């Protein structure tokens, strides 16, 4: 174990800061760092390092870190890459606690830079000195006025403290997101740019923010995790601490695994695993970094949604804005609330019965839009058992600032989130300023407000999930039979599934045509013939699958027509039928653990890519939720006169497969049951094909 000179809290809130490369010129990194520390009122000891100057910004300057006559908690290095190693060596020798390295062009710039970064890390570790970066923009500590950064966002006259903590692998993006937040009146606790993560990494600072009393909500911009195994436990710890975590994961479009022996390997790749782990641990995954910050602000300053699945109220004085907002809800997975009779009765006091509906246009009030009527309707919405939040898209109108000023107190009294949207561009600036003065969030676009509400819904669902009991093993699930390492045959993969109670088709392995006929007669016609080879992934592509063989002659003919390739035998199995095809899969993702997958099955599974992934093992409710998220769900539920299918059987099979994944752990490389045929309610499900790859016991 390395003995570190200082703890992480002193890295974030140092008592003394040395700026190596300090300058009076704010056009230089070192000049901006010292300028922003002074501008934003850093209360600790500030120590400029510059061998060519006696003073900088009125402070005594030192020729080198070794000449500073007192201990230094943090040194900020904004020096050319050619001088970096020597400066880090000097800091290590001087007893500096940590270095924030703004300098780039290390591991981010090729092999030579990576070698230099390794050497810098080696020097720091030998001395017990921590590193932030390199190639980072440092730390904004708004809580303690310690702006350890050169980011231009610090040109802001004031950087508001608040409850949002942020860790970002992009310094420039972090500065931009802070700027977005400040525009909307958000406040931040600590924002950390980790850069190349040579030493201190994203999970270290996530761990810190979970325990940080100034942080109430955590936002993460992630490009890659150094230690994925730490991530999910930290997300669960944050949830237990009551601190929502929101994430944007970059590179999602290219993060899927390369196609391997199974569909599951290509469909449940790295990003799908990341998404599944986030959902299970209660974190909220966002597509847009700006929306992530706006949602974090809503979670920081607004009441939480009482529970997932509630409806919304949309209210405004413009019929056009209410209707268009309502039209956008389904695309965001949201719905209008179903008003209770008490809510309707209150609305009738202010408008004709014909206008008592959602969305609500206050222009229909008997006396025109009034503050009393608007306030009464808002209170009734927030008391309604099916309305979880209110969206207020304000268009141009008289007295916008006075009208906007009503909502902060109504929201606080009602205990429901109110998403106020100022759609009127600069004409609405007075209303925005009124809300900033009331410490109340606002948005500028209806689409952003709905994306934020979707994030609030996901956070609420995570809280609901945390209250569920742990998964229970279903009767008869396991143990696994003895299995060889490597690619399993279909019969071996089906024996594994059957050992956990997953229904599979009956089959017999035959070595010649006579044995195949005998097997078919024992099973009962019609049957299927499948050539078996551990080396073949897609049997049907090679003509190794012969369907619907009705008699012995058909079996002999099919056997003779099999392609002339080495086979381990021919599997004769019952010809099963169903109303829909599913794929069920399982795999072990390094760092994230066992995963299961369900989706629309058959030969087009990788074309349709209608799949859901979750960590294993599953509860039945988890499995059903996965099925409901599929595009195939209306077919499973029964659509256009088709019978409802046996969803309970699919849920049971998926839960049982999840226990295979959980029990085998890293031994399970991948497993497909594709297709599983699903029949009408009461008819069950059956896996008609299976493949798996298993590590040997010594792997």
UniProtKB/TrEMBL annotation:
PROSITE patterns: ATP_GRASP
Keyword annotations from UniProtKB, A to Z: ATP-binding, Ligase, Nucleotide-binding, Tricarboxylic acid cycle
Region (Disordered) location: 462-485
Domain ATP-grasp: 494-530
A Pfam cross-reference name: Succ_CoA_lig
Record-linked Gene3D superfamilies: ATP-grasp fold, A domain (3.30.1490.20), ATP-grasp fold, B domain (3.30.470.20), NAD(P)-binding Rossmann-like Domain (3.40.50.720), Succinyl-CoA synthetase domains (3.40.50.261)
PANTHER family with a match to the protein in the record: BLL6376 PROTEIN, COA BINDING DOMAIN CONTAINING PROTEIN
GO terms (BP aspect): tricarboxylic acid cycle
Biased composition (Pro residues): 468-482
Species of provenance: Siccirubricoccus deserti
The protein's name: Acetate--CoA ligase family protein
């Amino acid at each position: 174990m390395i003995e570190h000179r200082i703890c992480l809290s002193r890295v974030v809130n140092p008592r003394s800061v040395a700026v190596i490369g300090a300058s009076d010129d704010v056009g230089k990194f070192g000049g901006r760092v010292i300028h922003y520390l002074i501008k934003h009122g850093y209360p600790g000891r500030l120590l400029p390092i510059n061998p060519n100057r006696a003073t900088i910004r009125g402070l005594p300057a030192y020729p080198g870190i070794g000449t500073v006559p007192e201990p230094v908690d943090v040194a900020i290095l904004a020096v050319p890459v050619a001088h970096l190693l020597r400066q880090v060596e000097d800091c290590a020798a001087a007893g500096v606690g940590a270095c924030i390295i703004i300098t780039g062009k290390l591991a981010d710039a090729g092999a030579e830079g990576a070698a230099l970064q390794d050497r810098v890390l080696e020097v720091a570790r030998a001395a017990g000195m921590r590193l932030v970066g390199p190639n980072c923009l440092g730390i904004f500590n708004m809580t303690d006025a310690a702006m350890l950064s050169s980011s231009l966002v610090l040109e802001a006259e004031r950087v508001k403290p608040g409850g949002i903590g942020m860790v970002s692998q992009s310094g420039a993006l972090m500065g931009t997101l802070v700027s977005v937040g400040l525009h909307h009146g958000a406040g931040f606790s600590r924002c950390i740019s980790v850069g190349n993560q040579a030493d201190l990494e994203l999970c270290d600072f996530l761990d810190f923010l979970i325990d940080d009393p100034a942080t109430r909500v955590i936002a993460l911009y992630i490009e890659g995790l150094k230690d994925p195994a730490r991530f999910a436990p930290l997300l669960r710890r944050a949830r237990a601490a009551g601190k929502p975590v929101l994430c944007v994961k970059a590179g999602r479009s290219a993060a899927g695994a390369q196609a391997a022996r199974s569909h599951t390997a290509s469909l449940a790749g790295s990003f799908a695993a990341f998404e599944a782990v986030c959902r299970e641990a209660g974190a909220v995954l966002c597509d847009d970094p700006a929306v992530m910050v706006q949602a974090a602000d809503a979670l920081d300053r607004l009441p939480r949604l009482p529970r997932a699945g509630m409806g919304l109220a949309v209210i405004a004085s413009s019929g056009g804005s209410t209707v268009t907002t309502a039209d956008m809800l389904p695309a965001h997975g949201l719905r209008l609330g179903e008003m209770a009779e008490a809510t309707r009765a209150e609305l009738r006091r202010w408008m004709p019965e014909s206008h008592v509906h959602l969305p609500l246009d206050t222009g229909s009030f008997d006396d025109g839009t009034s503050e009393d009527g608007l306030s009464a309707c808002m209170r009734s919405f927030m008391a309604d058992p099916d309305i979880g939040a209110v969206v207020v898209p304000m268009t141009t109108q008289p007295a916008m600032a006075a009208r906007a000023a009503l909502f902060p107190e109504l929201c606080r009294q009602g205990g429901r989130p109110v998403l106020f949207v100022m759609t009127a561009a600069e004409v609405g600036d007075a209303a925005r300023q009124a809300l900033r003065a009331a410490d109340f969030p606002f948005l500028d676009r209806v689409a952003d407000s709905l994306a934020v509400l979707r994030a609030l819904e996901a956070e609420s669902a995570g809280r609901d999930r945390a209250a569920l009991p742990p998964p229970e093993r279903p009767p008869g699930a396991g143990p696994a039979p003895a299995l060889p390492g490597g690619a399993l045959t279909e019969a071996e993969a089906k024996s594994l599934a059957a050992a956990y109670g997953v229904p599979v088709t009956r089959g017999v392995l035959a070595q010649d045509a006579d044995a195949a006929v005998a097997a078919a007669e024992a099973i009962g016609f019609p049957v299927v013939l499948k050539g078996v080879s551990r080396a073949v992934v897609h049997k049907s592509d090679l003509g190794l699958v012969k369907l619907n063989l009705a008699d012995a002659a058909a079996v002999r003919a099919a056997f003779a027509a099999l392609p002339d390739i080495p086979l381990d035998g021919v599997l004769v199995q019952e010809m099963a039928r169903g109303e829909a095809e599913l794929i069920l899969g399982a795999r072990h993702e390094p760092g994230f653990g066992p995963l299961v997958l369900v989706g629309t099955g058959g030969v087009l599974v990788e074309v349709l890519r209608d799949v859901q992934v979750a960590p294993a093992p599953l509860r039945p409710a988890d499995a059903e939720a996965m099925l409901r998220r599929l595009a195939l769900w209306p077919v499973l539920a029964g659509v256009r006169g088709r019978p409802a299918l046996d969803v309970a059987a699919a849920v049971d099979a998926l839960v049982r497969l999840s226990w295979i994944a959980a029990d085998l752990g890293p031994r399970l490389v991948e497993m497909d049951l594709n297709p599983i045929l699903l029949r009408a309610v009461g008819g069950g499900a059956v896996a008609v094909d299976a493949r798996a790859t298993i590590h040997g016991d010594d792997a």
